[in-house]
UniProtKB/TrEMBL annotation:
Keyword list, A-Z: Signal
Top-level taxon in the UniProt lineage: Bacteria
Protein name, per record: DUF3124 domain-containing protein
Signal peptide from the UniProt entry: 1-22
Phylogenetic placement of the source organism: Bacteria, Pseudomonadati, Pseudomonadota, Alphaproteobacteria, Hyphomicrobiales
Source organism per UniProt: Rhizobium oryzihabitans
Length: 166
């Protein structure tokens, strides 16, 4: 009986350690140069193309659209400026997966010092497709006030980056 308890205690401890290690591996993979990460908005695409099955046969497209959300990420560079990326994350049966990663060149060309990124709302996932975030930045690190720029993606997936008008 004592042996069973020892084995059970060891299994419980090992499970807890492995679970904690898996969780810390995910956060350890985040680069220290990531200064802002904002998840916001949502997108969906109708699946119109046939899908190739495991047997190589074409199957009709899924009835439900593919859905996901956006992330806007600022990565600090060695000179203090930041590169800003837009990511499209897709929902899968195994959890979220990165579908697309695009550098937003408009911010790189400005040699911007990103001071904040904020979503339009902090109320959770949007019910309609699109994205609206505000990127606060300085082009001169000594400037007192940051400029605000909006990243807008409409329901059709068209993106605009423009200086915010208050």
């Amino acid at each position: 009986m004592h042996l069973k308890r020892s084995i059970l205690a060891t299994l419980i401890f090992a499970t807890a350690v492995l679970s904690a290690r898996a969780q810390t591996e995910a956060i350890d993979a985040l680069p220290v140069s990531a200064i802002f990460v904002v998840s916001s908005g949502m997108w969906e695409e109708q699946n119109l193309e046939p899908v190739k099955g495991a047997d190589g046969q074409l199957r009709p497209p899924p009835a439900t659209p593919t859905r996901g959300y956006y992330k806007v990420v600022a990565i600090r560079q060695d000179d203090g400026t930041a590169k800003v990326y837009l990511q499209r994350i897709v929902f899968t049966a195994n959890g979220p997966n990165l579908l697309e990663n695009v550098e937003l060149e408009e911010f790189s060309q400005m040699k911007s010092y990103v001071t904040d990124i904020r979503p339009e709302s902090s109320n959770g996932a949007s019910a309609s497709p699109g994205l609206f975030v505000t990127v606060y930045l300085k082009t001169d690190p000594m400037a007192k006030e940051a400029e605000s720029w909006t990243v807008l993606i409409d329901e059709l997936g068209e993106m605009k980056i423009e200086k915010a008008s208050n």
